[in-house]
Design a protein that fits this description.
It contains 4 helices and 11 strands, in the order βββαβαββαβαββββ. With about 160 residues, the protein is an alpha/beta fold.
Length: about 160
């Protein structure tokens, strides 16, 4: 199964200046628990926004740079090669950024979205979720608190048959 996982603002904002727009510890925990032990696909800029590779995951980095290399990571030139590099029987998580989401939403089976109930100024956006294509199957609302500045909702969408 090909799964896009993202934290997305109400205006589809993902980030600005190669950084996140919010800090939601429970979303980080959800991301870690969901993707741990799996192959994760991302663009080069997303990968370079991490201080180091994420533990217990196989990183597949998509870049147009022919000589790009990072020890312990698989580097490919496009989304098709990234998916081909993953075991066929396992779930694959696509973790961004905006351009990679745009290229892969049409082939995804599932969306794991953390909807942040706020709008932000951004330079990277998640593609529109077309509800004629996607069915919302799960929603868990989480109110803001002392560790979370914004209300947010964990949402799961499955591609309609």
């Amino acid at each position: 199964m090909i799964i896009l996982i993202a934290a997305v603002a109400e205006n589809n904002a993902l980030g600005k200046n190669n950084d996140l727009l919010w800090h939601l510890p429970n979303d980080f925990k959800h991301f870690k628990e969901t993707t741990s032990g799996h192959h994760i696909i991302m663009g080069r800029k997303t990968f370079e926004s991490f201080p180091k590779p994420l533990p217990n995951r196989t990183h597949i980095i998509i870049t147009r740079q022919k000589d790009y290399h990072y020890n312990g990571c698989i580097v490919v030139q496009n989304i098709e090669k990234a998916i081909w590099a993953c075991p066929k029987e396992e779930d694959i998580y696509i973790i961004g950024g905006g351009e990679i989401y745009k290229q892969s939403i049409s082939i995804a089976d599932k969306l794991e979205i953390t909807l942040v109930h706020h709008t932000f100024e951004a330079d990277v956006f998640f593609p529109e979720i077309d509800l004629t294509v996607w069915k919302l199957t799960s929603e868990i609302f989480c109110p803001k608190d002392e560790k979370h500045l914004y209300d947010y909702t964990f949402q799961t969408f499955i591609r309609k048959k």
